[in-house]
Amino acid sequence: MFDIATLSYTDAASPAEFARSLHETGFAVLRDHPITPERIASAYASWGAFFASEGKHDWLPDDGQHDGFFPFRSENAKDSAVKDLKEFYHVFPTGKVPPELEEETRALHEDLVAVGATLLGWLQDHSPEAVLKGFSEPLPDMAKDSDQNLLRILHYPALDTAPEPGAVRAAAHGDINLITCLLAGSESGLEAKDTSGRWHSVPCDPGMMAINAGDMLEMASAGYYPATVHQVVNPPATRNVARFSMPLFLHPRPDVVLRPGMTAGDFLAERLREIGLKS
């Protein structure tokens, strides 16, 4: 059974249930979190105008940097030879943001980091002692004041023509970071794979936030919290519209030791090369 818990951010029983769900499925879904559906819809509308403009190409990353606009088909999933059908913008705590989007986007970034810090605290409080002993430092401390905490604004355009074989909006992958806080997308399409290889739709209606464990958390917990493989499938022909989503990738500081001989900075550089975002 693939039992992704849907729980309230304000319920006293939720921290333990969140840790259980993340351990058993790699995912959990939150409702009653601080970021309202109205704020999410407003951000999608604002960034939708950005992606519809030719001015977006003025915001390409500077050499050696990873903040800014990444054009359509910039990224592939690890071990995939086909680029994903998406474009996106990277927002870091000190990275560049178009002036007309900065206030709204910075506020979302800060609020999502705060939610993520709370969730890492839940895991710290409800992980088995054997798992806690493997952490090089408490989970909330790993990401505190990290300049790697990344808000990614994703635009999956409507498909004008049939894509090439194997091309999907986001091919099957695990995330790199500790945990991902994914605000409800403007359209459905997110799926997670269970240990039997079956795909399940992840519930994320307006007002919900999907949370999943990343590879760094899996590594730091010696596999206790699995980085479950997930994907975003192409829309059906009857619903061929654009999709927007906004995940916050909560990253540890680069110097944090995930396991002996592997820091977060080393692991991130390795994975960025694998997905085509670093030479």
Q: Could you characterize what this model shows?
A:
- The protein is of the alpha+beta class and 279 residues long.
- The protein has a single domain (6-274), classed as Jelly Rolls, CATH 2.60.120.
- 30% of the residues lie in helices and 22% in strands.
- It is built from seven helices and 14 strands.
- It has helices at 14-25, 37-51, 99-126, 129-134, 139-143, 215-220, 264-274; strands at 6-8, 27-31, 68-70, 87-91, 150-156, 170-173, 179-183, 190-193, 199-201, 209-213, 230-232, 243-250, 257-259, 262-263.
- The strands form three sheets. The chain has an eight-stranded mixed beta sheet.
- β8 (190-193) and β9 (199-201) form a beta hairpin.
- The mean pLDDT is 94.
